Structure formats: structure tokens, C-alpha cells
């Protein structure tokens, strides 16, 4: 299976997904770039064990979230400076400033969610269905639904607080 | 899909940071190459040390005891290199675990690390006490002070470093475990 998957093609297709996952965990631009690089390398190394038991996008999302969790643990220990409220420094320049405000608030709000909720909501926003999220995170569909409901309520609260 | 979620989804997709995929690919290729180079270099060093040990057993040993010592030492570096090469490869496989399994793995890893340092500390203390006894006997019987004081000094420094590392890990373990547990909470 893995020999059919070429890392260059995978990165072209899925680097934006990894970048969005990274953005929901890391506000600092340079640390985020390091994290995206780390995720890409982890995907490449893990491809050797990919047997096609899940969709490749789900496989990549799982690895991206795992590397992000690892990153948060390391950063928390190293500097105790993982600032969840820090605004994003760079986002796509194609959006208008008005849209930019909304996007910054959404991403900042996502970073304020508990990680268990954040992962589910971020994957839903990415377009994954409950079964795929369950596979990516190792949760039952009922658990995914519960986290999605609670996460969404928390997200609304955070966004309405501003 | 409700309009609010749809607007979040649009905002989420539009907030994608700019990525230079070609640059990312070359960085990732360079990182992978560096990691592989390091892994193979470590393996080669292990093979070289084992080969030298075997050479020493055949050509440099002055007595049967030395030959036996070198023969016994020969497989250790290469075995360690192969083991650490395998461990390194397995490290990447843990990234395919689901999040709860990954966190459980990290928890176990921290607990195992503390156990490893606890055992190392005990072994170092036993060795140090044995060395001190030998030093005492040598001092009493042969009055050789300097050599044994140097030995005790060097080993004392190593023992202190091991104890400090163990105490540090022991003190910080509850906090690190809490951080991992907090990650798993929803």
C-alpha cells in the first residue's frame, strides 16, 4: 500500500489539513511551522506501516493530532509558555480584514477548548463524519457525538464572550 | 448542516496558514535524511566497536582472562546498536496509535524512565560502596591512597549526577503525569 503513496503528492493534498490542525494547537508562527514539518515527517515515517485500514486522510489527521499533542506536552514542559490566547500572526492573505477578525476569533476560541473537544470540533470543521472521527481519535461514535455537542456549546460560549 | 456551523467551517478553511509545499518537502526530506544518517552512523559505530573488541581478543590480549573479557564484550555494542535502531523505528509507529493509546504509552514511558533511573541509582550506590570498601582495604593493607581517592572522587561525581537526575525526575513525575491526564480529559 505504502509504495503507492508518494510523500510529495500527499503533502500537496494534505499539508493544508496539517497546517489547520497545527493552528488549533499553536499560535506562534515559527513554532507552528516546526510542528507542520514534524507532522509531515511523522506521516512519511508512519506510511511504512499504513495498510489501508483507514482512509489516508483519516490516517494523516490522526498522526497530525498525535504530533500536536506531543508538541503541546513538550512546549508546556520546556517553557510553560504555551499561550492559548495569543492571536494568530499569519493567515491566508486572500481574506478580507473583516473575515480575518472572525477567523482569528474562531481559531483562538478553538485553542481555548479542552483538547478532547478541540480535536472533535476541528475534525468536524475539516469535514470528517462521526465514524471517521471515531477512527482518527480511537473513540466510539457515541463518544464523538457527546464531545461534539459539549465542544460546540463551549465554543459558542467562548465566541459569545468576546 | 446548520448555518452557524457552515460559517465556522468556512472561516476554519479560510484561516489555513500559507504553506510553501516545495520548501516543506525539501525540509522534511532533509530531516529524514539526517535522522537516517544518524541511525546508520550509530549502527556503524556499534559494529566498529564490536569489531575492534574481537580484533583485541585475537591480537591484543596478553592473557586468557583478557581474551575471554574481550570475547564477552564483543557482541554487546552491536547488540545495543541493533536494539536502539529497532527502538528508533518503532518510535514512529506509536504515532499511528489513537490518542488514548498514545497518552497511555507516554504515561508508561515516564513511569518506566523513573524505574530505570531508580535501578541505576541503586546499582551506582552499590558499586560505590563496593569501591569504597576496596579502597579502604587497599589503604589499610598497602597504604595506596591517591589512586583510590581519585577513583572515589570520579565515581562520587558520577553517583551525585545520577542521584540528582533521579531526584529531579521523581519530583517532576506527578506534574508530568497530570499534564498527560489533562490531555485525555474532555
UniProtKB/TrEMBL annotation, chain A:
Residue stretches in coiled coil: none
Keyword DNA-binding carried by entry: yes
Domain RNA polymerase sigma factor 70 region 4 type residue range list: 105-155
Record's keyword terms, sorted: DNA-binding, Sigma factor, Transcription, Transcription regulation
Superkingdom of the source species: Bacteria
Alphabetized Gene3D superfamilies for the sequence: 1.10.1740.10, Winged helix-like DNA-binding domain superfamily/Winged helix DNA-binding domain (1.10.10.10)
Alphabetized InterPro entries for the sequence: RNA_pol_sigma-70-like (IPR039425), RNA_pol_sigma-70_dom (IPR014284), RNA_pol_sigma70_r2 (IPR007627), RNA_pol_sigma70_r4_t2 (IPR013249), RNA_pol_sigma_r2 (IPR013325), RNA_pol_sigma_r3/r4-like (IPR013324), WH-like_DNA-bd_sf (IPR036388)
SUPFAM superfamilies: Sigma2 domain of RNA polymerase sigma factors (SSF88946), Sigma3 and sigma4 domains of RNA polymerase sigma factors (SSF88659)
RNA polymerase sigma-70 region domain sequence ranges: 10-78
Pfam families, A to Z: Sigma70_r2, Sigma70_r4_2
Family the UniProt entry places it in: Belongs to the sigma-70 factor family. ECF subfamily.
Protein name: RNA polymerase sigma factor
Organism annotation: Psychrosphaera algicola
Amino acid at each position: 500500500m505504502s509504495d503507492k503513496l508518494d510523500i510529495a503528492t500527499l503533502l500537496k493534498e494534505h499539508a493544508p489539513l496539517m497546517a489547520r490542525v497545527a493552528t488549533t494547537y499553536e499560535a506562534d508562527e515559527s513554532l507552528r511551522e516546526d510542528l507542520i514539518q514534524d507532522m509531515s515527517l511523522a506521516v512519511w515515517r508512519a506510511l511504512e506501516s499504513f495498510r489501508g485500514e483507514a482512509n489516508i486522510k483519516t490516517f494523516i489527521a490522526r498522526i497530525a493530532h498525535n504530533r500536536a499533542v506531543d508538541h503541546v506536552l513538550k512546549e508546556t514542559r520546556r517553557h510553560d509558555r504555551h499561550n492559548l490566547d495569543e492571536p494568530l500572526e499569519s493567515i491566508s492573505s486572500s481574506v478580507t480584514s473583516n473575515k480575518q477578525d472572525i477567523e482569528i476569533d474562531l481559531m483562538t476560541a478553538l485553542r481555548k477548548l479542552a483538547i478532547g473537544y478541540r480535536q472533535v470540533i476541528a475534525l468536524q470543521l475539516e469535514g470528517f463524519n462521526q465514524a471517521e472521527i471515531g477512527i482518527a481519535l480511537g473513540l466510539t461514535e457515541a463518544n464523538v457525538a457527546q464531545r461534539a455537542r459539549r465542544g460546540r456549546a463551549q465554543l459558542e460560549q467562548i465566541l459569545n464572550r468576546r | 448542516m446548520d448555518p452557524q456551523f457552515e460559517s465556522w467551517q468556512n472561516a476554519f478553511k479560510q484561516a489555513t496558514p500559507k504553506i510553501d509545499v516545495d520548501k516543506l518537502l525539501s525540509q522534511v526530506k532533509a530531516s529524514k535524511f539526517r535522522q537516517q544518517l544518524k541511525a546508520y552512523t550509530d549502527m556503524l559505530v556499534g559494529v566498529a566497536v564490536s569489531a575492534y573488541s574481537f580484533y583485541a581478543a585475537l591480537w591484543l590480549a596478553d592473557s586468557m582472562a583478557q581474551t575471554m573479557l574481550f570475547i564477552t564484550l564483543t557482541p554487546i555494542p552491536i547488540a545495543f546498536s541493533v536494539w536502539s535502531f529497532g527502538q528508533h523505528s518503532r518510535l514512529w509507529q506509536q504515532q499511528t496509535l489513537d490518542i488514548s493509546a498514545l497518552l497511555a504509552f507516554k504515561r508508561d514511558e515516564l513511569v518506566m524512565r523513573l524505574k530505570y533511573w531508580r535501578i541505576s541509582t541503586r546499582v551506582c550506590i552499590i558499586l560505590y560502596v563496593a569501591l569504597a570498601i576496596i579502597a579502604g582495604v587497599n589503604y589499610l593493607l598497602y597504604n595506596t591512597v591517591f589512586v583510590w581517592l581519585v577513583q572515589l572522587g570520579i565515581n562520587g561525581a558520577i553517583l551525585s549526577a545520577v542521584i540528582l537526575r533521579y531526584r529531579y525526575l521523581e519530583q517532576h513525575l506527578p506534574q508530568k503525569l497530570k499534564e498527560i491526564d489533562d490531555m485525555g480529559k474532555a
